[in-house]
Model the fold of this input.
Amino acid sequence: ERVMTQSPATLSVSSGERATLSCRASQSINSNLAWYQQKPGQAPRLLIFGASTRATGIPARFSGSGSGTEFTLSISSLQSEDFAVYYCQQYNNWPLTFGQGTRLEIK
Amino acid sequence: QVQLVQSGAEVKKPGASVRVSCKASGYTFTNNYIHWVRQTPGRGFEWLGMINPSGGSTSYAQKFQGRVTMTRDTSTNTVYMDLSSLRSEDTALYFCARVLGENYFWDWGQGTLVTVSS
Done:
């Protein structure tokens, strides 16, 4: 099983600044990584797939990078609606697995 | 627009079974696999398995083999997830989710809270 480790657990950033979230896989997952955003009481929303491709309707301030075992989600110029929990998910191997999440909070 | 609407919250006793439904609309039901994922504060997200609504074939996570069954009804565009021999650790928010090809989740149901308690 591919273990996905996200860091940090909590990230405090001011509105308008840039946030960088990390996700590490225990073994290579190529570029088969997705990122999701989840707000309280809601289902997750797909942001990024293929490590770097934005899903439909996702603003350009969200960008993903990485391959192999190291991945990054960057959010430039944070907006109020971006403060949420972010999860990575690998789909290179069975079973599908998720990271434990990074909570992005307002500083 | 694509919608996945799940059944309501359930409270079950240990040892019982639960059925959660996921009704799809806004797309051709048989075109896309449906997966089930659950979320708990302690263990995060866990993938349970998937079903191909076209032929009904399934694939389950090894952890849940023997306890989970996924079925579909093409006449109502509904997928069902049955989980048996419930224990307290199965208390979670259960989601159905649609994939378009590769196994990441484009669309999600609203979630169904299953509580297992004596």
User: Anything to note?
Assistant: The mean pLDDT of chain B is 97. Chain B touches chain A at residues 35, 37, 44-47, 59, 61-63, 95, 102-106, 108-111 (CB under 8 Å). Chain B is about 0% helix and 50% strand.
